[in-house]
Design a protein that fits this description.
This protein is α/β, with parallel strands linked by helices and about 450 residues long. It has a domain at about 95-120 and about 230-410: 3-Layer(aba) Sandwich (Rossmann fold). It has 17 helices and 12 strands. The protein has a 6-stranded mixed sheet, with helices on both faces. It has a 4-stranded parallel sheet with strand order 7-6-5-8, sandwiched between helices. The relative contact order is 0.12.
């Protein structure tokens, strides 16, 4: 078997473009590209054989197949030679049964896919391993690439910095000044990326990096580059794999630039095309109310995108008013009978804190997804016995100010329903004992 993949226009323009070409949009119509696979060749191996192959590789040590992405190499990036794979053992993240939190909401089968339990602390690693590996392959084939560049709200820059550091390829990241958390900022700095902190928002940074990518030798790493989507689509494949190749009824994912929405759908559709699954889940995109252009489109019957000014939100990584993957996301949602819902700042904060009290440590973007979940359950759109997966896109450890601010009551306009305050005491045993026992008694009531 010789699997083959290529770029093609999402709007159906004829022609195939090699995955090692420096191209991000259709040369005919300007639409985004997608990666297409030779499904006929892949069907020469049965669905049962593919699942056995993927299970045998999963989290093992044979290079590069132990990675949750590269274990599915034939379905993702067959054009990269094994020696040019740049991997940090991404994927393989846990699928957490949120039993207590689900019971509070009235759900029996709620799961959270912890994509933040990755090397740089977010799902962006899944796409970046494919993109940087492709760049390494291109350089090995003689391409003159001097650096890889991205605009970012934090997580993309962290992933790009890390993977380029492993590969020995220069990275340039353009960030909106004072709009990302300190842990996110320090990650690309520590990995020796060139960090450009620009006095604008993400949409402004995106405009700049798109212009920069037209300069000779600069390769674009944002999700308008379809190679990113190929790695990120393994979230859906791995989730089904962790259910012993069973399919959830609902998948809820936070949406900003919307590449992850398209990726999620692409993984499920590929499994269906190759006979691994027989039905599709419903996909829900959760947006912050202050940055919800897809939601505004959805409530008007998926009207054409009208870019908005994205207002500051605690969910800073999805503070995007002009998402580049809008068209791809809409295509996916239509295929999956999808929904779009939004959450206010207070709703996302309370949902994150409520989930944390059952053992999670949620980032604000996952808080958006959980708040939307709570709304759908309250409206009766999700039934008690349906299997629901919420995609947690990043580690809560990246957002200490969000956590501290909630529990100290310093987040403007946010209530403290689930706030937990440390009790400061003198070093006197009787005082400590009284506080401890009184606290235990209060918690048990």
């Amino acid at each position: 078997m010789q699997p083959r993949a290529w770029f093609q226009c999402i709007k159906g323009c004829p022609g195939e473009l090699p995955l090692t070409d420096v191209v991000y949009e259709c040369p005919r119509c300007g639409a985004l590209l997608e990666v297409a696979h030779d499904l006929g060749e892949l069907r020469k191996q049965s669905a049962a054989s593919w699942t056995r192959t993927f299970d045998a590789r999963y989290k093992r040590t044979t290079w590069p197949y132990g990675s949750g992405v590269w274990g599915k190499k034939e379905w993702v990036a067959p054009h990269v030679a094994d020696d040019n794979v740049v991997s940090l053992d991404e994927g393989g993240t846990n699928l957490f049964w949120a039993e207590r939190y689900g019971a509070q909401l009235g759900l029996d089968d709620l799961w959270v896919k912890m994509c933040g339990n990755s090397h740089t602390g977010s799902f962006k690693d899944l796409g970046m391993t494919v993109l940087v590996s492709t760049v390494k392959q291109m350089i090995a084939d003689g391409a003159q690439i001097k650096a890889v560049a991205c605009a970012s709200t934090g997580d993309t820059s962290a992933a790009l910095g890390a993977y380029c550091a492993v590969a020995g390829i220069p990275a340039v990241v353009i960030l909106p000044r004072d709009k990302i958390s300190v842990p996110q900022l320090i990650q690309p700095i520590a990995n020796a990326a060139l960090v450009l902190s620009v006095e604008t928002d993400f949409d402004g940074c995106m405009k700049m990096v798109k212009r920069l990518a037209k300069e000779p030798g600069i390769y674009l790493a944002n999700s308008m580059n379809s190679l990113r989507v190929e790695g990120q689509k393994t979230v859906s494949i791995e989730t089904v794999q962790q259910f012993d190749w069973g399919i959830p009824d609902w998948v809820i994912i936070p949406g900003g630039n919307l590449g992850n929405t398209a990726a999620l759908g692409a993984g499920f559709l590929m499994m269906q095309e190759l006979g691994v699954i027989q039905k599709l889940p419903r996909i829900v995109v959760a947006q912050a109310e202050r940055a919800s252009p897809l939601y505004q489109s959805f409530i008007h019957g998926f009207a054409p995108l009208e870019p908005i000014f994205a207002r500051p939100t605690l969910a800073s990584a999805i503070q995007i008013g002009n998402p580049v993957s809008f068209d791809k996301a809409v295509q996916s949602l239509k295929r999956f009978n999808g929904l779009v819902e939004q959450a206010t700042e207070d709703e996302l904060s309370q949902a994150a804190a409520r989930a944390d009290r059952t053992g999670m440590f949620t980032d604000p973007h996952t808080g958006v997804a959980l708040a939307v979940l709570e709304k759908l359950v309250a409206r009766g759109e999700i039934a008690r016995n349906e299997r629901v997966v919420v995609i947690s896109t990043a580690s809560g450890l990246k957002f200490p100010d969000f956590k501290v601010g909630y529990h100290e009551g310093t987040l403007e306009g946010i209530g403290d329903t689930y706030a937990n305050h440390p009790v400061v005491l003198p070093a006197e045993y009787e005082t400590v004992k009284r506080a401890a026992l009184d606290g235990v008694d209060a918690a048990s009531r």
